[in-house]
Structure formats: C-alpha cells, structure tokens
Amino acid sequence: MKVKQTNTVEETKFLGYELGLLLKDEPHIVILLDGDLGAGKTTFTQGLADGLGIKQIVNSPTYTIMKKYATPDRFRFLYHLDLYRLQEAGSDFDLEEYIDGMGMVVIEWPFQVKEFMPQDHLRVGIKKLSETGREFTIECHGYPCKRAIESI
Ligand SMILES: Nc1ncnc2c1ncn2[C@@H]1O[C@H](COP(=O)(O)OP(=O)(O)OP(=O)(O)O)[C@@H](O)[C@H]1O
Ligand SMILES: [Mg+2]
User: Which of 46, 88, 100, 130 is the most buried (most CB within 10 A)?
Assistant: First the structure.
C-alpha cells in the first residue's frame, strides 16, 4: 500500500501519469477509483491516460457510462467507466465485457455493482483533505502491480 498527497490538480495528474507509465505494458489491469464527488477521480484518470501515451482529451463518462481511448499506434486501450448512473442506463450495459477484456480499465464509482468487481485489481482511494489537498491510498490486490506501486 502506498499513501500519497497532492495539493494541486497538476500534482494529481502527475501521480496518475507516473502510475500510467509504470503500468502501460500490462495487457490487462482493472483500477477501481474510490472517492466522493469531486475527489479527483477523472483528473487522476487524465494523468493515467497521459502515461499510457493517449493523446485524446479524457473527460467524464458520467452520461455515457464508458469511453474508450486508444494510443496513436492503437496498441494500448483505456476504458474509462463511471458507474454513477449505471442504474438509469438499464441492464443492457455489458460491464463484464470490459472488466474481463483487455487494456486498462478504470472505474469510477465501482461499488455500485460490487458483485462484478474482479478480485484482482488496483484500488485507488481518494480523500479530500481540503479545497485542494487530496490523499491517495493505492493498494494492489492480486495483480502484478506491487512493484509499480512501490516505485511511485
Ligand atoms: N489536488 C487536487 N487534485 C484533483 N482535483 C482537485 C485538486 N484540488 C482541487 N481539485 C478540484 O477538484 C475537482 C475534481 O474533479 P474530478 O472531476 O476529477 O472529480 P471526480 O472524483 O471525478 O468527481 P465525480 O465523482 O463527479 O466524477 C476539480 O474541480 C478540481 O479542480
Ligand atoms: Mg469523475
């Protein structure tokens, strides 16, 4: 487990960037982002995308549930999910397809559907300390991500 503090949006993006770089060669990894509204889950995901080498602008998939991004060479994919409104979207959204699929799968509000969450995952808890202070708790569960989190 690793605990990190950020004090600006840029620092949060940079933390995501560092983790993205360390994990960019993993064929499949699920990252669960756990934090309140406005904690910085999407901001952190923007950094992750940057670390993977993704050039598109990453913004919140709240209304679409899922957005898919590719690196320019199309070798790496990021699936950015926000399950906050999953219930409204109905049951035709095939969550398992993404969770068992390829690439980096980043999930905001993962505990909306606890039963689908894989045992192997990297969990990032984000706590608001102040207007601009955020505490990140990064834990690796089962995946070969231990070394990655040790080096950030
Ligand atoms: N250190 C920080 N790291 C990240 N965001 C910060 C920080 N300080 C302030 N902020 C602000 O907090 C907000 C974070 O928004 P963001 O969309 O990333 O949160 P979120 O956790 O994805 O929220 P939601 O649950 O609504 O999807 C932004 O308005 C940003 O400017
Ligand atoms: Mg968000």
Answer: 46
Instruction: Note the CATH architecture for domain 2-129+140-150.
Output: 3-Layer(aba) Sandwich (3.40)
Closest ligand 1 atom number to CA of residue 33: 21
Atom 28, ligand 1: which residue's CA is nearest? 38
Cα(5)–Cα(90) distance, integer angstroms = 37
Q: Give me ligand 2 centre to Cα 54, in Å.
A: 18
pTM higher than 0.85: yes
* Atom number, ligand 1, closest to the C-alpha of residue 39: 21
68: helix, coil or strand? Answer: strand
